Amino acid sequence: MRTKDPAAVDRRRWIALAIVMTASFMDLVDVTIVNVAIPSIQEDTGASFSAIQWVTGGYALAFAIGLITGGRLGDIYGRKRLFLIGIGGFTIASALCGLATGAEMLVATRVLQGGTAALMVPQVLSIIHATFPAEERGKVFGLFGAIVGLGAVSGPLIGALLTEWDLFGLGWRPIFLINLPVGVAGLLLGRRFIGESRAEQALRLDLLGTVLASVGLLMLLYPLTHGREAGWPLWGHLSMAGSLPVFALFVAYERVKTRRDGSPLVELSLFRVKSFAAGIGVQLTFGVVTGIFFLVWTLYMQIGLGWSPLKAGTTGIPFSIAVSTAAGLSVQKLVPRFGRKVLQSGALVMAAGVVTYIWEAERYGTAITAWQMVLPLVVMGLGMGLIVAPITDAVLAEVPREHAGSASGLINTVNQLGLALGLGLVSVAFFGAMDEAPAPDAVGTAFSGAFVHALWWVVGVLTVVFLLMFALPKRTGGAAASGAGAAAGAAAGSESASGAASGEPTADVEQTPVLI
Fold first, then answer.
1. DSSP per-residue letters across 282-339
2. 445 vs 366: CA distance, rounded Å
3. Contacts of 514 (CB under 8 A, 6+ apart)
4. How far apart are CA 107 and CA 102, in angstroms?
5. Residue 39: partners with Cβ closer than 8 Å, 6 or more residues away
6. What is this structure's pTM?
7. pLDDT in tens, 228-273
8. Shortest CA distance to 383 belongs to which of 461, 462, 304?
9. 159: number of CA atoms within 13 Å, CB side?
């Protein structure tokens, strides 16, 4: 019997690594690339502001709902198979986004894109785990983290350049169409070079749990997003109130599902761990912060101040660099010495940056320059970097190792849900602070005032984040101090990109074949 050439096997696995990393990069860029093009999309399609919220929020919601189920499908039917289905679907959805004939079609295809990303992304770290031995994973996760960090920084710039260049007269559409050659190459190469793997004891799907969670979230977020434009009708209030019993039914069913076959969508016993329950609250509220800030920031710069997409995109570079720098410093130097205080300091530093931004926006008004924004953006970025890299390890510190994979997946899901909730709250925090249709000569002033109003919301939510952190362990095991953890922190700093680096910690990899 002929044995396989070790060099050929080694070459194939590194090619497989490049393929899954490229897919993660594509997903991350596609999330961050959209924000800077939103005003162009609105101008071209005539989309309402609520539709614009759904262009970003619909992706985040579909991605969040599908994450855990996508991971379970990979366990059962094979991670390679689900990865290929996911990347193929993501490529098709990207094409449909780029060919959208109106706002309604764009929202629908963005939801489809988020759903297919939820099939693709959970398989990435599982494929890495199955492909590389334990002694090599530190180096591999370092490479993975570098790619994630690169995607976080380059996404807004790529989006700004593609929108500004107006390639072939297509306007904003190339931000989605650029995924086509990358996706097709990943699909063809993935079929050849990625090895198949499954979990030894795969859990069953919880389809009813997924349906209940989806219905409850839609009942809450849809009226929250559309309520202002509809004049806050009675049905909206009834829908939001009705989401509570739906969530209660979901919890009751998850308990039944646990007793029946031990494979619920959400492992409720995790919430008995005080630090985990508080950490989930931190992830949810921090997701709200990112959801509110990055959308209103884009609208403020491009519509309120009249800046070009390129100017708006380059303005965020100091922020991304600050997040990446502080993320690496926090996990390597600060958290091992000071523990939980680093994360709490991050919340306070970020809040200080937001307050500085408020002061500058009020002082300079519509005459504010990109250079004047550097100071508050750097302070905000440093604060965010102190939080996003080590937070997952802090949340998982007291979780039993046999539940680490489930807990990690839930953390990333909740972060995405917080993002979707924050995007929904933009209708209240931002649009609710200005007139329905400000006069053309008053748009700048109206958007600047609404931006300041929304930033006070951000300060309030960061205060909640700070208080919840008191329930986190004072010290953690340092599992997040990997390249993936640090760079995932940089990703989280670019709107919703933290979802792309799902499963940052490496401590649980040895115990669980699936990270989501």
1. HHHHHHHHHHHHHHHHHHIIIIIS---HHHHHHHTHHHHHHHHHHHHHIIIIIHHHHT
2. 7
3. 71, 72, 74, 75, 122, 126, 199, 405, 409
4. 9
5. 298, 299, 302, 303, 309
6. 0.79
7. 777 778 898 899 999 999 999 999 999 998 888 877 888 888 888 8
8. 462
9. 30
